[in-house]
Specification:
alpha+beta; 3 strands; elongated; three-stranded mixed sheet
Length: about 120
């Protein structure tokens, strides 16, 4: 008979893998996604979206160069806000790229396809 191992939640194991890959926890990802409108503001939330994070660098995709520049100017505040919301120092920098999908992020004032409104 083998000794029983303690039961671990899948999210805990996944968090270990994410940490090894230089990414924040599942909960941190969930908070960023759910709170995106409050993080960037309602005007920009339909024009940009978080698309990835590695080694404490958050990548944001913007609908056009003007939005990208605005998000770049807000980068320090975005990192500070996200770190406050998740209760951890998960974002050190923000990298913004312009969407190459021909508006897949959404035009100003529109929600991005498949995005949630946080409700």
């Amino acid at each position: 008979m083998r000794p029983e191992r303690p039961v671990r939640r899948l999210s805990s194991s996944l968090d270990d893998v994410l940490a090894h890959l230089g990414r924040p926890t599942v909960e941190a990802h969930r908070v960023i996604e759910a709170q995106w409108t409050s993080i960037v503001g309602s005007r920009l939330s339909g024009c940009c979206r978080p698309v990835g994070m590695t080694d404490r660098e958050l990548t944001v995709e913007a609908a056009d160069p003007v939005v990208a520049e605005e998000v770049n100017l807000m980068a320090r505040d975005l990192a500070r806000t996200i770190n406050r919301l998740v209760g951890n120092d998960v974002v050190a920098s923000v990298r913004v790229r312009v969407s190459s999908g021909g508006g897949s992020v959404g035009a100003p004032g529109e929600r991005a396809p498949g995005s949630t409104d946080g409700s």
